[in-house]
Design a protein that fits this description.
single chain; 256 residues; alpha+beta; six-stranded mixed beta sheet; globular
Length: 256
């Protein structure tokens, strides 16, 4: 796997997304305004928020009845019990907790803070606050967009839906892929040779996360309003497998 040049374009022009909006149409309009016609092999990275918003993945706190477990977790973590009830409904297991932060295994398999539930950069009524959840099935969301764009443009594309998360032993968050379509998100290089002819024994490259992190750097985490990034020049292996290979099996996870 040799990469030559890689170019990334943060694409302006994506409006505030509302439930039911056509992401394919919004993406094509923004690309057209930016004079960036799609080519075979291009990677489009979309911020999770715009996908979730288009799919109406909101939870309204006034509609939530907290369980005893949610009340107990809220006391430990200084959170709204209704928020904790939504978090629990989106999670398989609570792994760590401290005031302000709850680390969970999301029901989709990701391990990150607060089950990916977010209140930043979303409009909300103070009398009935709402939370934004992750897409129900990010791989399916990515595949639907890939197919819709292929119909409109004829281009064979690669899609990443990214989110941000912290990491064990490191400060700061970075982008990572929660949904993919069109390519192998993890490239197995075991058996290939290093510079000195020795066979690689354990090397696997999370190319989807590397590209997601690069795109996240352009998207920003605040008011930048750049939820779409076009990456050109990435040499990727085609696949219809989705992002499941990025998640480590429980029996091999040494960090829980």
């Amino acid at each position: 796997m040799t990469q030559g040049a890689l170019t990334l374009h943060a694409v302006p022009g994506i409006p505030l997304v509302e439930p039911g909006d056509d992401l394919c149409a919004l993406v094509l309009s923004a690309l057209d305004q930016a004079n960036l016609p799609l080519q075979d092999g291009d990677v489009l990275v979309l911020a999770q928020k715009i996908v979730s918003k288009s799919e109406g993945r909101y939870a309204f706190l006034n509609n939530v009845e907290p369980s005893p477990e949610a009340h107990a977790l809220a006391l430990e973590c200084d959170k709204d019990p209704r928020h904790m009830e939504v978090l629990l409904s989106e999670s398989r297991e609570v792994l760590r907790r401290r005031p302000g932060v709850v680390i969970v295994e999301h029901k989709l398999g990701y391990v990150h803070a607060n089950a990916g539930i977010d209140r930043s950069n979303i409009q909300s009524d103070d009398s009935n606050p709402r939370l934004l959840l992750l897409p129900e099935n990010p791989d399916a969301s990515a595949q639907r967009l890939r197919e819709a764009l292929a119909v409109k443009t004829g281009a064979q594309l690669n899609i990443i839906i990214n989110d941000s998360a912290g990491r064990a032993w490191r400060n700061g968050s970075l982008g990572f892929a929660i949904g993919t379509a069109g390519f192998e998100p993890v490239e197995n290089r075991i058996g290939e040779q290093d510079l000195f002819g020795r066979a690689l024994e354990i090397t696997e490259v999370a190319v989807a996360d590397e590209l997601a992190a690069a795109a996240s750097f352009l998207m920003g985490q605040g008011s930048e309003a750049m939820p779409l990034v076009l990456i050109r020049g990435a040499k990727l292996r085609p696949s219809n497998g989705g992002s499941a290979s990025l998640i480590r099996d429980r029996d091999k996870d040494m960090f829980r």
